[in-house]
Amino acid sequence: MAADADRFERVYQAHHRSVLGYLLRRTDEQTAEDVLSETFLVAWRRLGRVPADDPLPWLLGVARRALANQRRATARQDALRERVAAHAAAVVEHDAVRTAVVVEAMRALGERDREILALHAWEDLPAERIAEVLGCTRAAARLRLHRARKRLARAMLDLGVEEA
C-alpha cells in the first residue's frame, strides 16, 4: 500500500500542473479545480491501470471525460432550473390572475358579504367566532357565511372563473 501511495504521489507531482493547465484552457478555474480533483481520484482508484511510462495522456483522457460529465450535469441542472422557473412563473401568473378575479368578485358583493368573508378568510375566524364579532347567533353566522360564499362563487362565475 505504501508503494501505491508513493507511486500516486509521484504521478500527481509530475502531472497535476499539466492536467490543470489543460482544464483551465477549457473551463473556468473552479470547475477546473473540481475536475482536477476528480481526475486524480480516478487515478488513485485505478492506479493499476495508469500507464507507468507516460501517464499524462491517460490522465488527460480521464480529465476530458470528467469535464464532459461535468458539463452534461451542469446542462441538466440548468434545464431543470429553467423548467422550475417557467413553472413557478406560470403559477405566479395564474395566482395573480385568480387574485385579481377574487378582488373583482369581492367588489361586486355587498358590504355584509365582504365583511363576513373577510372575517373568515383573512382573520381566520370560524363561524362561531364570527357570531361573536357580528353579535348574532352561531346559526345565523353560519348561514350568512354560507350565503356569502355562494354569492362570491356566483360573482366569480360571472367573471369567467369556474371554481371559487
Automatic annotation (TrEMBL):
Domain RNA polymerase sigma-70 region: 12-76
Origin: domain of life: Bacteria
Segments forming domain RNA polymerase sigma factor 70 region 4 type: 102-152
Keyword Transcription in record: yes
Keywords of this entry: Sigma factor, Transcription, Transcription regulation
Pfam families: Sigma70_r2, Sigma70_r4_2
Record-linked NCBIfam families: sigma70-ECF
Record-stated family: Belongs to the sigma-70 factor family. ECF subfamily.
The protein's name: RNA polymerase sigma factor
